[in-house]
Design brief:
Blueprint: H1 2-9, E1 16-17, E2 20-21, E3 24-32, E4 38-48, E5 54-62, E6 65-76, E7 79-90, E8 96-103, E9 108-113, E10 116-121, E11 126-127, H2 131-141, E12 146-153, E13 156-172, E14 175-185, E15 194-200, E16 206-213, E17 219-229, E18 232-233
Parallel strand pairs: 11-12
Antiparallel strand pairs: 1-2, 3-4, 3-17, 4-5, 5-6, 6-7, 7-8, 8-9, 9-10, 12-13, 13-14, 14-15, 15-16, 16-17, 17-18
Organism: Pseudomonas japonica
Keywords: Signal
Protein name: Dehydrogenase
């Protein structure tokens, strides 16, 4: 249960505009419906490096478990190009560590996933488990109703599908915000998990809420506590 919540916290997304990325920081709280207390917290930031690359940093904690994640990426003609990806989970449950290198000159992805070697072909449009979240926000901002992404998942490249459900007003720690609701599309014969995300229309489509229902019926909700986009504090209506 704790591991599942940490993974859901890792789905927090960041703002992407058509031809630019903006520095960003945000903190979130998590509420597990089956527990009387808050389940965990998460922090995310997007920082531009001196060489023009960007670091997407993430850290989450829940009780005695923790998770860190970093994606180094560039933006080329409105296309995200991951350069390196690191993921590490520790504490309760099974530990996990992933390190990937994206070599665009050789068009190959190499690295390790839980000690196993990874080697996959690299084509434009392939993303890691962090950078695809920026692409999702970009496409939602562009008005797309359904999107698919090729994402490195373990020792294979998997397809992640999403569709827009409509607009809703969401109550966050910063006040109510107008948001676009999106859901992850899964084959019901393969998985009964539910993932729903809400992106703030007035704040570069920042993720303000996430709802996850596991196959065993356990449910938790992640809500924005506070954040800044390009130096401006996020505020509700």
């Amino acid at each position: 249960m704790r591991r599942a919540l940490l993974l859901a916290l890792a789905v927090l997304a960041l703002p992407l505009q058509a031809a630019d990325l903006k520095p960003f920081s945000a903190s979130y709280t998590a509420d597990w419906k089956q527990l009387p207390v808050a389940g965990g917290t998460a922090e995310r930031s997007l920082v531009k490096n001196a060489n023009g690359t960007w670091n997407l940093n993430f850290k989450a904690s829940m009780m005695l478990a923790s998770l860190t994640e970093q994606s180094t990426l560039t933006l080329d003609k409105d296309t995200l190009l991951p350069q390196a990806y690191h993921f590490e989970r520790g504490g309760l449950g099974k530990a996990k560590k992933v390190d990937l290198d994206f070599d665009w000159s050789q068009k190959v992805i190499t690295g390790t996933d839980r000690g196993d070697a990874v080697k996959l072909p690299l084509n434009r449009g392939v993303l890691d488990k962090s950078s695809y979240q920026l692409a999702l926000q970009h496409d939602v901002a562009a008005g797309k109703k359904s999107v698919s992404y090729q994402v490195v998942d373990g020792d294979e490249i998997d397809t992640y599908d999403f569709r827009v459900l409509g607009t809703e007003k969401v109550t966050t720690k910063t006040g109510p915000v107008d948001a676009i609701k999106v859901e992850r599309v899964r084959d019901p014969s393969q998985s009964k998990r539910i993932t729903e995300l809400w992106f703030a229309k007035d704040w570069d489509y920042l993720l303000v809420q996430l709802r996850q229902v596991e196959t065993d019926g356990k449910e938790y909700v992640i809500v924005l506590q506070e954040g800044t986009v390009d130096g401006k504090a996020v505020k509700g209506n």
